[in-house]
Amino acid sequence: MDRAGGLRTAHPLRHRAHADRRAARRPACAGHRVTAVVSRIRDRLAPAPEDVGPATRRAREAQPAWAARPVRQRAAIALRFHDLLLENEDEILDLLQWEVGKARIHALQEVAAVAGVARHYGRRAAHYLRDRRRRGAVPLLTHVTEVRHPKGVVGIVGPWNYPLFLSIGDALPALLAGNAVVIKADEKTPLSVLWAAELLARAGLPPGLLHVVTGDGPVVGAALIDQVDYVCFTGSTRTGRVVGKQAAGRLIGCSLELGGKNPMIVRADADLDRAVEGAVQACFSNGGQLCLSVERIYVHERIAEEFTRRFADRAARMRLGAHYDYTDDMGPLVSQRHLRTVEEHVEDARRKGATVRAGGRARPDISPLCYEPTVLTGVTAEMTVHAEETFGPVVSVYPVSSDEQAVALANSGSYGLSASVWTKDTERGRALARRIIAGAVNVNDGFGAAIGSVDALMGGMRESGVGRRHGAEGMLKYTEAQTIAVQRLVPMPPQPGVGLARNATLINASLAMMRRLRLR
Ligand code: NAD
């Protein structure tokens, strides 16, 4: 297996420089353990004669033999990977914290999510991929089977915020479906992906099937999309449009998992303790750098003030830090540039009249990239935070007078990724959920209930994406469906040796009969 590639124009040493900068701003107490794993994996980023071309060529060579293996053999590798992942958990937790900055508990949630995907597809791949009998055109005489073939080489382009889940988590169903995979890791977080690729090799994945290339998106990502048979992209809506156009130009399929501005609705009958705690998790997990993060909360006016007071108080008490253990509730942000964006969003809101109920400032005294969990009220449409994705620990709370108003506001804007509804009346919650334009709606949970249910589809409506991950579709999108129809005994009409007029009578009679027999 190749551990690192990258176009020469996107020199891997630049990413090594990013890694060195990150090392510099980590607290000294980070310790030996982290340094050891980082240097071991980082050495893979030394200049390599690789580029996207050789990686996809080798993937193409290795893929047919892999596809010829029984599905159960391929699936067993995912289950072994699952076990190895848990056995080596501390190492990848260190690496995820080091690369992304996330608190350890959020790194663990990411690892758990990948384990869930490995277990699900390890157990369900054979079921999803099996041949299916379909109804034939002529009952009893037309025997139809739908068969699934792998696409060939799948390209995965992922972001930095969940580098393991949004690369290996999508690669697993592609591999188990019989494809080879080339991952373009985000330039800020290639080490976690390289680590996982190595672990998959240890789990028994044959050489040549999984490649990781690193480098700048518009160069390496674009080169990859030019050479693969399907692309699974996760990232911003802006880049998603570019990727979608490129895939369309080549007439290859793609799934696009994009941005969001996810709403939460808190009904007057909600359990306030649970709703406040749920909002903390929904807004500040991974410092809000999560596509499913809640960034706007619509609370019934009867409880709005109490909810906001308790929520702001809870946010203000969160423990910030950059420790490689479970002492912190929230870690630093990923980069200086991202920190600046978060600061700009809050400053813009403050300048235009919003009230900062909690947080609202960077905390370089704790760690260079720390920003406080921030709760805003009085946000208006002129402010950037109103409709634009911040992708940081910033949330706006708005009072509403009815379910109708809450749903209308939740559905405003151009995104449709995820939503959350809090109520003691779960039937009412379900009914509201159906009216919200979002690929996933959680009732009495922020986002984890839906994303953790790997049997169910995840993805975005409107500008939040095209296609889905997880469930059957999360695997079948990496396949081509083929219909094999065998006609027996009597040929399809027109029947030879019978006049065309007589054939027409027979066709009409059989159509009427099939309708009467209620055949589908
Ligand atoms: P981004 O779009 O800037 O980058 C994502 C990936 O695309 C990176 O690997 C990047 O190098 C690559 N890339 C950039 N330009 C490219 C091009 N022209 N061709 C091919 N690849 C290219 O996204 P980001 O800012 O790093 O990530 C944050 C965004 O991702 C947020 O908007 C967030 O909501 C979204 N996101 C969505 C999901 C989801 O499942 N819907 C999950 C995580 C993040």
TrEMBL record:
InterPro entries assigned: Ald_DH/histidinol_DH (IPR016161), Ald_DH_C (IPR016163), Ald_DH_CS_GLU (IPR029510), Ald_DH_N (IPR016162), Aldehyde_DH_dom (IPR015590)
Extract the signal peptide range: none
* Residues covered by the Aldehyde dehydrogenase domain: 49-484
Q: Which Pfam families match?
A: Aldedh (PF00171)
Gene3D superfamilies per record: Aldehyde Dehydrogenase, Chain A, domain 1 (3.40.605.10), Aldehyde Dehydrogenase, Chain A, domain 2 (3.40.309.10)
Q: What does UniProt list as catalytic?
A: E257
- Biased composition, class Basic residues, residue ranges: 11-25
Keywords in alphabetical order? Oxidoreductase
Lineage, top-rank taxon, reads: Bacteria
Tagged with keyword Glycoprotein: no
Q: Note whether Membrane occurs among the keywords.
A: no
Q: Where is this region: Disordered?
A: 1-28
Family from the record: Belongs to the aldehyde dehydrogenase family.
Name this protein carries in UniProt: Succinate-semialdehyde dehydrogenase (NADP(+))
What organism is this sequence from?
Answer: Amycolatopsis acididurans
